[in-house]
Amino acid sequence: MIDILELLNEPIAFQSDAWASAVRGFWQNAYTAVRNAVGGGLTMMIGDGFLGVDSWQNFLTYPSAEGVLMDVHQYQIFSDLELNRTQDEHIQFACSLIPQWANFSSANLWTIMGEWSAASTDCALWLNGRGVGSRWDGTLQGDPTTQVHGLCDGLTGSSATFSSDYKTFLRKYWEVQSVIGDSVQGNIWWTWKAENADEWDYSKGLQGGWIPQDPTERLYPNICN
Asked: One short Pfam family name for this protein (predicted)?
């Protein structure tokens, strides 16, 4: 039995106003088509297209639509602007999302943080595509605007190479993003296992201690204060 249908995964609405308009039109047309086909029993999920939830105020909300969820994939690693942030700034930005998302989910659409991780770089092997490098170390192919932010050594791969300070950051970043998920209707970590990228790997996070065995445990309960 299918309870929720996600109509499209990760549309890149941020590319331009034309792309954003096309994504909005697709959501509206797809919503109408599905409702006409199956009626009102199926919940539909749309995505923010990496525009941020405030770009979707009053979109497919009740009473013009019903049974719609917003899916947001929360990463701060796929642009130079985001990669320029310090570890503290990554945490501060995550803190800023908590009231924003909570307000959106209460006034507009129930919201799920459908993907997130503790990664603060795009260094993971083939994250950007098979055989493609990363923005972080300036090896991303086909992107003439890529800066060099630093080396990937000690930031991805086996956690045996992670410093204690980096593991502390991973724990803080995990906790603050958990709070985002708790402020809305839930969250889904990406991913349980990753190929040689322990900062993305939930099972390795449990082993390494930056993800707690009890997901409600907090070492930094006042991290946003």
From this structure: Cellulase
Which residue in 10, 66, 89, 199 is the catalytic one? 10
Instruction: Report how far residue 71's alpha carbon sits from residue 53's, in angstroms, rounded to the nearest whole number.
Output: 9
The β-bridge partners of 73 are 115
**Residue 115 designated active-site:** yes
The H or E element spanning position 218 is none
CB 59 within 8 A of CB 24: yes
Q: Is the pTM of this model over 0.70?
A: yes
pLDDT < 50: residue spans in the chain: none
Model confidence pLDDT, tens digit, residues 140-170: 987 777 789 999 999 999 999 999 999 999 9
Closest CA relative to residue 223, chosen from 168, 166, 175: 175
* Catalytic residue (one of 66, 82, 89, 115): 115
CA torsion sign, 89 to 94 to 95 to 96? positive
Tokens of residue 74, six digits:
């929360």
pLDDT tens for each residue of 23-43: 999 999 999 999 999 999 899
Strand partners, 69: 45, 110
Rounded to a whole number of angstroms, the distance between the first and last alpha carbons of the chain is 43
Residue 10 catalytic?
A: yes
Q: Which two tokens stand for residue 36?
A: 């006409």
